[in-house]
Specification:
The complex is a heterodimer of chains A (266) and B (311). Chain A has 266 residues and is α/β, with parallel strands linked by helices. In chain A, 24% of the residues lie in helices and 24% in strands. Chain A is globular and about 45 Å long. With 311 residues, chain B is an alpha/beta fold. The radius of gyration of chain B is 20 Å and the shape is globular. In chain B, the strands form two sheets. In chain B, strands 1, 2, 3, 4, 8, 9, 10, 11 and 12 form a nine-stranded mixed β-sheet that branches. A three-stranded antiparallel β-sheet of chain B has the order 5-7-6, with helices on one face. Helices cover 32% and strands 19% of the residues of chain B. The chains are: A alpha/beta (266), B alpha/beta (311). At the A-B interface, helix 3, strand 9 and helix 4 of A face helix 4, helix 5 and helix 6 of B.
Chain lengths: 266, 311
């Protein structure tokens, strides 16, 4: 049995949940923050042959500190390859080589659709958000998409205000009808309360595991649709001592991950 | 013939009101000196484009020089949403810009198509999303959906882009415009080659012979270039690999200032209108933030084996 220390934080648990989605040998397209930490925890534990790339053009970066953006200067020295958006998003993502893509969103719905464009009516938005960037192509073309979101009835939605990035759109079969490549789409939504997976029959997210400090009831209360619960639902496995060691000693000694606590990941 | 001019001359001669500009950069090598000069000269009604826009596009929108934005994304990165962009869209301050929404795959592909003389290009993204349900100034020419003539599959086509002018910042160029970069590429090369002409802003001008010592690094050939401006620190507060780091402190100051209309105006008065050119800007930076802060941004050196093209 793995050793599970009890002194972990919620962002650390989320980063470890992300890491466990990565398989050895995966090509992973990452942003900053959770995705990079998750992918690197995986590399230092069970997936040493996973490879990371950033959309800006970088492959296999060796940053000496956590990158603060996908254009961060620390991604340049030591990378195996630096090219352009056309290399990463065109040749590798659209070319079908990306196994895992990480996304987050201000709003995520039960089909795994993500909104990063506008809250409210697009024509008269309550809040104008950044837009797609790389999110739409990653959500369209990566084989497995890992979504990270805050778990409350505002951030999760029955239906997002604007589909910036397609999940299962309006249910199973919709991606295929739109001509998106087969065997792509959301794999999991990791929140600060739970891990949701997708029913491939309906395209709808269901509760797979709930985090140790919460309960099935609390998760369902904070989900704005009638959340189905897996028959084998259980508690999320906490971070192992080894995962925490990698995260704290190698990847993030300055504890930049704690910024996520201020952003609500508690 | 040499094309070396000042930034003031380059912008005055080649940026026309109502023109369509590709502006390169990806936090890496943002042509900030050119952007400040565009604002100082009070250019109007510009259409601007690039994948992943940041503080530079936010500043141009806040300064009122932009009419249209062919967009994929705009934020201040670590410092959150673009304040001026939000005020423009949500409140019409200083005016509501028109936005055509694409992605970090489709927009670089449109620039690539433009650079290669292709009329349009198929892309595998955007399908099934609301990006297909919103059209702005490009109207029905934003995209088309066809059944592929090869296998009948549903295919999204997006049009080639042909900016009137590209402005890029690079590490080095010769006086004719052969421009060399290293580090994160973004869509700089595709954008520059899609444009009808290019302004090259560079950290240093080198000889044609120096360019020839490593010609694989050249992203734009001289015949596309109409002006070369030597502008050390020209990307600040963005960074240039091998020259200087990104200035996070300054990025934070921009976020704080741009949070209000008054703060943004004061920021422009100090850093754009209050200086004549990039040299004065850097002098002001050193006076205000102190020489140690300036010095701390300078890059260290870390060389590999020099390349040799000899045979």
């Amino acid at each position: 049995m793995a050793n599970h220390p009890s002194d972990y934080t919620k962002p650390e648990l989320i980063a470890c949940c992300g890491a466990r989605e990565i398989r050895d040998g995966d090509v992973v397209l990452v942003g900053t923050g959770f995705p990079t930490m998750s992918a690197n925890i995986a590399r230092y534990t069970h997936a040493p042959n996973a490879r990371l790339m950033q959309e800006s053009g970088v492959f296999d970066a060796q940053p000496k500190r956590p990158a603060l953006s996908v254009g961060d200067p620390c991604l340049n020295p030591g990378a195996a390859m630096i090219g352009t958006l056309l290399d990463i998003m065109g040749a590798f993502l659209q070319g079908g080589w990306v196994d895992v893509g990480f996304l987050s969103g201000s709003q995520v719905d039960k089909y795994g659709n993500i909104n990063t464009t506008a809250i409210g009516d697009y024509r008269k938005p309550k809040s104008r958000l950044p837009g797609s960037g790389g999110a739409n192509p990653i959500g369209s073309l990566a084989k497995r998409v890992i979504i990270i979101a805050l778990h409350d009835t505002r951030r999760l939605a029955e239906r997002v205000d604007f589909i910036t990035t397609p999940g299962y759109i309006d249910g199973a079969g919709a991606r295929e009808r739109w001509g998106l490549p087969p065997d792509t789409g959301p794999e999991v939504i990791i929140t600060n309360k739970a891990v949701l997976r997708f029913d491939r029959g309906t395209g709808e997210a269901y509760l797979a595991t709930y985090h140790p400090d919460t309960s099935i009831d609390e998760v369902r209360r904070n989900t704005p649709w009638d959340l189905k619960v897996a028959e084998d639902v259980r508690e999320t496995e906490p971070p192992t001592a080894e995962e925490l060691r990698v995260l704290r000693e190698i990847l993030d000694p300055k504890r930049m991950i704690s910024a996520y606590e201020r952003r609500g990941y508690v | 013939m040499t094309k070396v001019v000042t930034m003031k001359e380059a912008i005055a001669q080649h940026v026309n009101d109502g023109g369509f500009l590709f502006i390169g950069g990806y936090i890496c090598r943002t042509p900030f000196a050119a952007i400040h000069e565009i604002i100082r000269q009070g250019k109007k009604d510009l259409t601007i484009t690039r994948s992943n826009a940041a503080d530079d596009f936010d500043m141009m929108i806040g300064a009122g020089v932009v009419k249209r934005f062919i967009a994929t994304f705009l934020s201040l990165g670590y410092f959150g949403l673009g304040r001026c962009y939000r005020r423009s869209i949500e409140q019409g301050i200083p005016h509501r810009i028109e936005v055509e929404e694409y992605t970090n795959l489709s927009l670089p592909m449109m620039l690539m198509a433009g650079s290669m003389g292709m009329p349009f290009v198929p892309v595998k993204d955007m399908a099934g999303s609301d990006l297909l349900n919103v059209k702005s100034f490009m109207g029905d020419n934003k995209y088309k959906i066809i059944d592929s003539p090869f296998d009948g599959s549903r295919t999204v086509l997006v049009p080639a882009l042909h900016p009137d002018l590209a402005i890029i910042h690079v590490q080095q160029a010769d006086e004719f415009g052969n421009a060399q970069i290293w580090g994160i590429g973004g869509d700089c090369q595709a954008g520059a080659n899609a444009a009808k002409k290019v302004i090259v802003s560079c950290e240093r001008i080198v000889s044609r012979d120096t360019i020839g010592k490593d010609p694989n690094r050249t992203i734009v050939p001289d015949f596309k270039v109409v002006a070369v401006v030597e502008e050390p620190w020209g990307a600040h507060p963005g960074y240039t690999p091998g020259f200087y780091d990104v200035d996070f402190t300054f990025g934070y100051q921009y976020q704080q200032a741009s949070d209000t209309v008054e703060g943004f105006k004061a920021f422009l008065d100090e850093w754009v209108f209050g200086v004549r050119d990039r040299t004065e800007y850097i002098q002001h930076y050193i006076q205000k933030q102190g020489y140690p802060a300036f010095k701390a941004l300078q890059a260290e050196f870390d060389y590999g084996y020099p390349v040799s093209y000899a045979y």
